[in-house]
Amino acid sequence: MRYSTTAVVAALSIGQTLAGPTHAHLHRHRNVHEKKDVNWNDLDWENMGVDWTSAWAAGQHSKTASPPAYATPVASPIIAAEVKPTKAAAAPSSPATDLVSDVESTVSTLFSHIKGLANDLTAFGSPTKPSGTIIGKVGNIGSPQGSNMILVSSAKGYQFTNTFINTSPKAMTIVVWNKAYDRDGTGNPEANLGSCLAATSPALSFTLAPGKQQVVAFQEDTQAGWAEATTAIAQSGAYATTWGEINYLSAGSGYDVSAIMNEDGNDYDMSISCAEVECVSDMTQNLWIGRNNNPEDPIPIGNSDGSCFIPGSTATIITKMGGKV
């Protein structure tokens, strides 16, 4: 996508605030939130005429915290069944941490056949080594791939969670993907590819009846997105609807609603909040949209720069999804 230097600086600024939302946000990366008539040549960040070093420096101006030091991952893959789930040493004292899953396995939708890579896992796999920065950031995608996120029965005790709640009057299938994806299994994941393969090879998928919920736990250094499975698909393969986005880091996490890829504008009812801070990202605040519904011109909405930030070492997210309005 082609942006002005001003837009890039604004985007990088919030994306790096204390290691905040998804390294300049998922939707401001190459191959993410593409338009149906996408010009792939325009997606070459090296040929945009932007001084990325200067933009990055400007975005970091006045930021006082440094990015977290990443732990050295386990050298060899660990079979998920042999690893106990990672739990927080001291979860925040809040009723939200006791949210439990009550997903009904019998409910179905047109998209119930979609199966995530980690749907059958009951414990995390090994974390993968991060690489890249800013635009090309590749975080933890789990080994085996997708095992950095698992379906759990309760948010209690886990360091990073997202409780998905279906507030719509109909059943929906929700798909969760990693920002990066290892398409050929060589251990070299590509930044920003995950959304493009979310409709066919997501990390997780589950179907919720109206009023039901599902808790998903995540490992450290996970950058992920999610959306309701729909028939609206962009040329890139990504869901052309409203997304939720998250960046989980012990040094501080961030989340946002993004309607940039929604071809119908901001017409999807999604609300993201957390137990740790009073910040809501929804249809009216702390979100990203495309100016005039143009995904190539993203702008933030609300008093922040389009996202919510959690300064602590835990992130207990609650996502309410109400469907199209």
Supply the number of structural domains.
1
The third-level CATH topology is: Thaumatin
Number of E strands: 13
Q: Largest sheet at a glance? A: 8 strands, mixed
Key structural traits:
325 residues; mainly beta; Thaumatin; 13 strands; globular
Notes on the protein architecture:
The protein is mainly beta and 325 residues long. The protein is built from two helices and 13 strands. The chain has helices spanning 5-15, 52-60, and strands at residues 149-152, 160-166, 172-178, 204-208, 213-218, 222-228, 243-248, 253-258, 268-274, 287-290, 298-301, 308-310, 315-324. The radius of gyration is 18 Å and the shape is globular. The protein starts with a helix and ends with a strand. Mean pLDDT is 77; it is low at 1-95.
Put the structure in a nutshell:
With 325 residues, this protein is mainly beta. The chain is 6% helix and 23% strand. The strands form 2 sheets. Strands 3, 4, 6, 7, 8, 10, 11 and 12 form an 8-stranded mixed beta sheet that branches. The protein has a 5-stranded mixed beta sheet with strand order 1-5-2-13-9, with no helix packed on it.
Task: Provide the fold topology.
Blueprint: H1 5-15, H2 52-60, E1 149-152, E2 160-166, E3 172-178, E4 204-208, E5 213-218, E6 222-228, E7 243-248, E8 253-258, E9 268-274, E10 287-290, E11 298-301, E12 308-310, E13 315-324
Parallel strand pairs: 2-13, 8-10
Antiparallel strand pairs: 1-5, 2-5, 3-4, 3-6, 6-7, 7-8, 8-12, 9-13, 10-11
Helix pairs in contact: 1-2
